[in-house]
Amino acid sequence: TTRSSIFARGEGGFGGERGPSASIPLPDRDPDFDVTKPTLPQQALLYRMCGDRNPLHSDPDFAGAAGFPAPILHGLCTYGMVCKAVVDAVLEGEAAAVAGFRARFAGVVFPGETLRTRIWRSGNELLISAGVVERDSPALADVVLTLA
Question: C-alpha dihedral over 147, 97, 49, 114, to 10 degrees?
């Protein structure tokens, strides 16, 4: 049995409370780390080889019907790339030093765009902001990596 779902922004109707949406304030100083990483133009297509068949990530006509000018990068890819950028820059690649990672999706990334990840140390946590360089647009917000 195979099941699939598509989440379409702005469609609503899920039947529940929205839940909390508290923002995490970032320090009023320069970040401790500032990392830029490009995504590949074909990056969304790589996920198709892993079984993702969502046309929003590969079909320009479908993406246009959903209100986007082009197919978008998977949210999970953005989430993973930001986490990896933080682990590499701050934790010297030591993934075991991560006890938790959470984020709110704040915008879209198009394959081929560059992610900018700004990181602040704050006790046992790293506070993070991630955005798209080319459009000066947010990608992830309220990002927190908790150290083990």
Answer: 60
**Strands, DSSP E only, in the chain?**
33-38, 98-105, 114-122, 125-132, 137-147
Q: Which residue has the tokens 């779902």?
A: 5
- Which residue is catalytic, options 34, 57, 61, 88? 57
Which residue out of 52, 61, 88, 136 is catalytically annotated? 52
Residue 142 is a catalytic residue: no
Tens-digit pLDDT profile for residues 13-42? 667 776 777 799 999 999 999 999 999 999
For the sheet containing 125-132, what is the strand order? 33-38, 114-122, 125-132, 137-147, 98-105
Catalytic annotation present for 34: no
Output the CA–CA distances (angstroms, integers) from residue 47 to 52, 58, 104, 135, in the order listed: 6, 10, 21, 24
Q: Do residues 33 and 92 lie in contact, with contact meaning Cβ atoms separated by under 8 Å?
A: no
83-114 pLDDT, tens digit per residue, is 999 999 999 999 999 999 999 999 999 999 99
